[in-house]
Amino acid sequence: MYTFLIALFVIVCILMVISILMQASKGGGLAASFGGVGGSGGLLGARGAASFLQKVTITLGVLYGVLCLLISFVSGPSTELPSSATQEKLGVEQPALPPAQNFPTPPPSEGQNNNAPQEQPNNPEQQ
Fold first, then answer.
1. pTM here?
2. CA-CA-CA-CA torsion for 14, 16, 19, 22, nearest 10 degrees?
3. pLDDT of 73 higher than 80
4. Among residues 22, 18, 17, 41, which one has the least CA distance to residue 32?
5. Around Cβ 124, how many Cβ atoms within 10 Å?
6. What is the 3-state secondary structure (H, E, C) of 57-100?
7. Rounded CA gap, 83 and 105, in Å?
8. What whole-number distance in Å separates Cα of residue 5 and Cα of residue 74?
9. Quick one: which of 24, 55, 107, 113 could link to 31 by a disulfide (CB 3.0–4.6 Å)?
């Protein structure tokens, strides 16, 4: 599934680049070679090419965004720690993550809610 989405993503990217480059700029662009700058009797016509290419570009842009989201959901978060090929080759294990520390919270300032329960520090020297 992931490979299929990546292949489709690359195809959409290439088609979007082509459709953007074919649009007529103020100087005529590549669309002038298909429809002619002043003539409307060409292959796509001056007005027909512009609206058609705009619709294609918008559609490809939406597909691009949807595919980005799908690829990110399919790849998902990794539960494993990132590993290094060099460390695997040498047989070195990754160090474990340090344990979470419980830091005391600062006292509330004058603008904060003073009725909220306060956390007591876990330091026995302060008791």
1. 0.48
2. -70
3. yes
4. 22
5. 6
6. HHHHHHHHHHHHHHHHHHHCCCCCCCCCHHHHHHCCCCCCCCCC
7. 35
8. 9
9. 24
Total residues found in the chain within this entry: 127
Per-residue pLDDT reduced to its tens digit, 54-71: 899 999 999 999 999 999
Return the structure tokens found at 104.
């005391």
Phi, psi of 16 (to 5 degrees): -70, -40
The type of residue at 34 is: F
Burial 53-75 (b: 16+ CB within 10 A, else e): beebbeebeebeeebeeeeeeee
State the Cα–Cα distance between residues 111 and 10, nearest whole angstrom: 53
